[in-house]
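ping. complex inputs:
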Amino acid sequence: MKFGLKQKIWITITIVAVIAVVFGTGLTYFLYEKFYVEKQKDMLVLQGNELKKFYHLAKSKVEFEQRIQWTDASSDASVIFTEDPMLLSAGIPYDEGDETNLITFEERQRLIKGKEVVFIREHPRFHQDILAVTVPLMEQGQLAGAVFLYMPLADIVEPFQPIRLVLLLTLALLVAMVLVAGLKTTNRLIQPLKEMETISNKMSNGDFSQRIKVHQSDEVGNLAVSFNVLAASLEAVEQKRREFLQNVSHELRTPLSYMRGYTEAILDGVTSKPETVKKYVGILHRETERMQRLVHDLLDLAQLEDDSYPMRQEVLPFAQLISDVVERFKLLARQKQMELVQELDDDIIVNGDGDRLEQVVSNLMDNAIRYTPEGKSIRILLSQEGVDAKLMIVDAGPGISQANLPKVIERFYRVDHARSRKEGGTGLGLAIVQQIVRKHQGQVQIDSEEGMGTTVTVTLPLFQG
Ligand code: ADP
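pong. complex structure:
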């Protein structure tokens, strides 16, 4: 049989409660009874000694015997007086003619010496325990008689019967209370664990929306809080994953539908004019290129987002690297009648992955040229600021509104979707820049004012030789 946590705790509580209560009440009962018997014993000894005193004071035997009868009648104990020398020598008055003497040899010796004898023993004839006190009566150093006071033990413990009932009831009540309290506590403890089990089952089926209600601040409560945090972050990851898939499929859908439309047009013979066919094939080519770029960028970003993906560590003259990249954009800039102004501090050395840093500069230059209208200039500035190298790419384009500014770095976010697409953008350029710079312990900042232009600033730690 398999027990749950609840049953286990409950069984333990029950066992401990029953043991504790039984043992506790048993002990109380035992001690109380002992105490009571002890008191009865003292009383019998006292009465015996009173009688002994009176034995010497009494004017006559008759008077003494009257006193004995009176004591016998007025107390709970039976009182017997004997002077029978036979009985006395045999150890009176317990010898009932049986083979077994009620009194032992040592006790008899005590009596002869004039000392009282007290015992609790089973009476051979009545087969019940009796409490007995024997007081010897001495005359000129000789045992002349004895007073025997006794009572069955059952009579002594009798007043206990009602107490025993009360005790038993209290015991039952106590056990019941412990069990109810135990049950409540276990329920409170187990409830969040049960909830966790249900919710984690739901989580394994992809439902991350459930949370546990936390009422406690103990270990289980803390566990529940951690569990909720875990659920929240899993939900966020799941949400991101969904968004990402939506974005990717959305990005792929447009070029694919273009390609399908134009290939169908060619296949169906809608047009057979060689120049039109050529134009269509040109569009197909452009869309294929876009998809290729998109897939390449996505793969790149996925790698960069993986924390274990390594960056090369090279000592790089940063100004040289920048001017090499800018050189590649010169032709494009000339076509748009743009001037590329470089102010680069040649002494700056950084540590990092050369190809990846070229990618950063290239993506930023690409955006600056793409979004800046013809005839304007772009400035590329590299300076040292404290322990950092600071690269600024300043354009005089349309700028980005304050509302859009925090979002442009996100994947697939584009202020003007149609325009970005027309220009061949994937919406991943700035996200890639951000990842690379972060992996170089640097920062990217975008400042922009609508209508005034945009400045992208990249700070990287200087090489510490
Ligand atoms: P894209 O491939 O669309 O350029 P990016 O991630 O590089 O993707 O940029 C995201 C969006 O940020 C762009 O679509 C554009 O709207 C805006 N953006 C980026 N750079 C500039 C800039 N220099 N001037 C104005 N807008 C910019």
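The radius of gyration is 53 Å.
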